[in-house]
Amino acid sequence: MITLGIETSCDETSFAVVRDGREVLSNVVYSSLDEHRRFGGVVPEIASRAHLETGLSVLDASLKKAGLGLEDIDLVAVTRGPGLMGSLLVGLAAAKALSWALGRPLVGVDHVIAHLYVGLIEDGDLRFPFLGLVVSGGHTLLVRMDGASNFKILGSTIDDAAGEAFDKVAKILGLGYPGGPEIDRLGRGQDAGRFYFTRPFLSKHSLDFSFSGLKTAVYLAVEKLKKAGRVSPSAKRQVAAAFQESVCEVLVKKSVDAARREGLKSLVVGGGVAANSRLRLLLAAAARREGIRLVFPSAALCQDNAAMIAALGAALHREGSRDSAALEAYPDFLRHHRLEHKTMAYRRSSKQPARFH
Length: 357
Ligand code: KG4
Ligand code: ZN
Description:
Helices cover 47% and strands 18% of the residues. The chain is an alpha/beta fold.
């Protein structure tokens, strides 16, 4: 069973060929990040144009690398949300056209859940249920994963996402975009204790996150340093380290709380911030203490990619999922799933529990 995966939700144009939902034959990613850098963030129009311009060559490259032709594709899987609407529509149009022209089924896939599903590609021994932590530029979520289409959102950010906080703090410190890797590099080996930023835990029982107050605290600390004429390179490094420590501690604490509460013994981390070296270190230590199996996907599968879309698409197809040319994109993860939850709970009989929460 050969699945072609298509991912165009943000600035990465990616096509991948995956056999039997697990074996990645090719995973080609083109990023238009360099075209966005001077604007300090992703420009939606530039991103969708880049998908249009590079899509076909990325598709060709992915087939060539897999040593297969279009006629070998059994299933087309595509990201339908969340993401930038213009970008999503380019991928959806390509997927619908390919599915129609090849006479092969089409399955729409959620990008965020795919970030977690990737754990099953990376770790052959991983089994459901497991806890997922998604930390990207747009999302910070704790999710209980019971199956490919069976998940429950345990907590999410009420304001900025973790990656967004890294990017905004990097801007405050005068660093480049994206800010996460810069702060990671700057904060490495620094004294994280010279500055202290509060840990936004919200209430004791909540698994939700909040990072916007932390960003303001960093802003105020940097302003104070500026007024005192003390913004030295070393002060900047220490502020970066202290901020990073606060974010990572909160992510680790909430993940451990969620795992204990749900009785889960495996944790998969996905999204761009999963590359953060301090988060990796702190989570690994906590996982050892708690006896939790920790899966950090490799860098290639942490970034946005179509292999994860193909893998989840193949699993959904196995469960009977089929989409038509009427498949629509959605920009917002929580809004989409909360609405879906209500509809599904209403539609299902009382014997069958609702799968989306
Ligand atoms: O998942 P991703 O590639 O794109 C989205 O779907 O958002 O995540 C991008 C985010 C950016 O905010 C970036 O600053 C952050 O991931 N990031 C990092 C690191 N590498 C990327 N944050 C902290 N430490 C890193 N090493
Ligand atoms: Zn992503």
